[in-house]
Amino acid sequence: MVSDADATEAQRELLATLQRPDGQALNIFRVLANHPDLTRRWLVFGNHILGKSTLDARTRELVILRTGWLSGSDYEFGQHVLIAREAGVSDDDIYRTRTGPDDAGWSDADRAALRAADELHADQQITDPSWAALTAHFDTQQCMDLVFTVGQYVLVSMALNAFGVPRDAGVPGFDPEPT
Counting beta carbons within 10 angstroms of the beta carbon of residue 85, is it exposed (0 to 12), middle (13 to 18) or buried (19 or more)? Predict the structure, then answer.
């Protein structure tokens, strides 16, 4: 991770744009600051997925949580627990993403999105029955955004796992279901 004391000018400039309101940068950005050019280019796509997607925030977060879980990324899952809560997703639904689309409590739209995430993660494709279920609830752009969301968060989870990025303070990760 790039520390403030050891950062180059390019790294300091990048980290300055990625600070939270408390003036700190997340650990993911401190690791990615090792390659500022890559990070700036990746952020354009990541910002579409996280902030400009045609998916509603709830669906986006359920899909990201499921992908983080399937990818074994404690960091990614934990960061998106916080983001999902901000988007109004209940703790029960957040933690049920770990059980997947067959859990009885999901709506048909949630189940379709989660099943698509599972299939994309496992086989990099979606079966015809799953496409039919998905398109019953989501339009073409939303389906495209869902596919690219899963792909983005498989990539992010892979990078986080490969680089051994530690969770930030106060991030829950794969902690047990709240009581």
Answer: middle
